[in-house]
Description:
By secondary structure, the chain is mainly alpha-helical. 55% of the residues lie in helices and 6% in strands. The chain is built from 5 helices and 2 strands; from the N terminus they run H-H-E-H-H-E-H. A two-stranded parallel sheet has the order 1-2. The relative contact order is 0.10. The model has no long low-confidence stretch (mean pLDDT 76).
Amino acid sequence: MSNRGQKDDLENQIEFLKTFANARGVIVDEVIEDIGSGLNYNRKQWNKLIEDCTDGNVSTIIIAHRDRFIRFGYEWFEKFLRKFGVEIIVVTNEKLSPQEELIQDLISIVHVFSCRIYRLRKYKKKISEDKDL
């Protein structure tokens, strides 16, 4: 989830994924919610999940979309986790052409950086008023 404003969408996504898992006989031991961009590798819960996978504590990860797991390098992480016996199941596995995938990646990058610029703007006034700077 990119921001807290998407909380309802996240709750619906969790219920959908639980139903999907139950229909396939997969027991859901834990649901991991992570607030942050798929471009950010420093997400606390995501890093804990990777660590749990490499420690042998996870056998299956079910995600709605590939970019909910990681924006770039999904194939690498999928192959890496497979070495630890972890299967990633992508529920919505829409096939995009390389051009469509590139366009989505570029839009994601622009969105992340525009959010960062917006956050920096709110500090502009504080910085200009700070006499110590």
